[in-house]
Hints:
Elements: E1 18-22, H1 27-38, E2 42-47, H2 53-62, E3 67-71, H3 79-91, E4 96-98
Parallel strand pairs: 1-2, 1-4, 2-3
Pfam family, one: adh_short
GO molecular function: oxidoreductase activity
Family: Belongs to the short-chain dehydrogenases/reductases (SDR) family.
Amino acid sequence: MSKEAQFSTDKFRLDGKVAIITGGASGLGFNYTKAMLISGAKVVIASYDEKGWDETSKFAKSVNGEVKFIKIDVTAKEAPDIIVNAALSKFQKIDILVNNAGMQRRNNSVPI
């Protein structure tokens, strides 16, 4: 068995689906992206960090997948509208959302 996780995609097909994944080019988000691409989904990655974009592009090509990158701070007030509009402009629909991007704060969060 290879070091890469083996995915069984016969029961988990996402052909024709469009997924938005925040932070989808690194860490756990990259694994979400790979699973979606292997399963046939088109993926929109929203991230402020371009690290991992080249590797993600190469992986997408290797599985005949399609990925769109959006460089954006997903915590910005206008980010949701920008991400949704970019996804709709490229793929005309959105089926899946994975809110993966994370951050660490050393102070208290704002109370809700």
